[in-house]
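Dataset card, provenance and construction

Sequences and ligand SMILES were collected as paired inputs. For each pair, a complete structure of the chain with the small molecule in place was predicted and serialized as structure tokens. The example below shows a pair involving S-adenosylmethionine. Curators did not alter the output after generation; any descriptive sentences attached to a record were derived from the structure itself.
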Amino acid sequence: MTSVMQVIDIANEKERALIPLTEEIARILQEPASRRDPRQLGDSWAKLDRMRPEMRSIGNALRKIEKPVRARMTAAAYRAERQAYERARGFLHRLREWDEVERLVRRHVSPRRTPLLPAPQPTRRDALLTQIYEALHRLANPAVQDPSAVDRGCFADIALPIQPFDLLLSAAYRVALAQNPCRALRFLDVGCGGGTKVFAATRYFDRADGLELDPGYADAARQTLEKIGASKSTINQADALTFASYADYNVIYFYRPLRTEALLEALEQRIIETARPGTILVAPHDASLTVRPGLHCAQVDGPIFVTGIAQAEADQLRQDAEATCTKILGRSTHRSFDAGYWEPILDAASFSGDE
Ligand SMILES: C[S@@+](CC[C@H](N)C(=O)[O-])C[C@H]1O[C@@H](n2cnc3c(N)ncnc32)[C@H](O)[C@@H]1O
């Protein structure tokens, strides 16, 4: 007679056999929409889906395993039964995700296109949200601008309202997905003031840092981020015109740090020349998201640019980005259970299943 442990071992072995199939699907998913082969994707999914009936019948057997009751057995027996029970639950959890993952894969077969930035440019804002963000911005940075920063042509810490900022970050995130959905992304706010945009960017990117010349502002930003528990973020107190580490970032944002056109141009040149090719620049000139006329870089949409590529590539990138999700994707590490064989698909997706 087959023991419970043997059934679970067989179940986990069957799961391991699915991994090459989900990896094959992931390889197709991670291609941008214009290069993805929908037929190949459909075929690869069908190959995986043929395993579903067998997985279901194993699931039916595992569903009968009951939760152990501690009082009825020795500690060692309880530990072993509890472990078996948890492994069975993990299997059933992954099995239940099958429909959701299927929806997600099918979205990549025929992605719906959504513009990166709304047109016409945003004018209506949520008054309460705007007011609350402005209050938080003031609380985060009570410092008075340092006279040395005024002398060097810096603007004071005047915030871009949060809604246009969020529109821009969502668009930049989608451009990054179209470039490569499988990498961790680093964001930099050049002239971060009290750091509230750095915090907001952690919603989209694995890591968000700030760069700030004014020492009082930089201290305020550090304190803000510490208080709100954004422990992975770093604030560099340095001059953006000479900063040497732009190449460490995938997404670089700046909102009018400097007062004169000449200084702004020098900053843009420094960033464009020293960032890696393929770096996404988010450079709004004002809250209506217009662009500074002198910015010379391949433009994806509005104030979103990409370094080191030709305009034709930027146009293609915009189209591929329009075929990505408008939501923040739930990767394998965001799941409340071990995603197991679904991990490659969840991590290569540029679309979610529920839209
Ligand atoms: C208009 S505020 C932008 C604040 C915030 N990034 C936002 O988007 O809401 C510009 C900030 O850039 C900083 N800044 C200006 N020149 C700088 C420079 N050369 N290096 C680093 N920071 C600078 C200013 O001190 C100020 O905090």
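Derived descriptions for this record:
The pocket of S-adenosylmethionine is lined by residues 149, 154-155, 157-160, 189, 191-193, 197, 211-214, 217, 239-241, 255-258 (CB under 6 Å).
Residues 4-113+328-348 form one domain.
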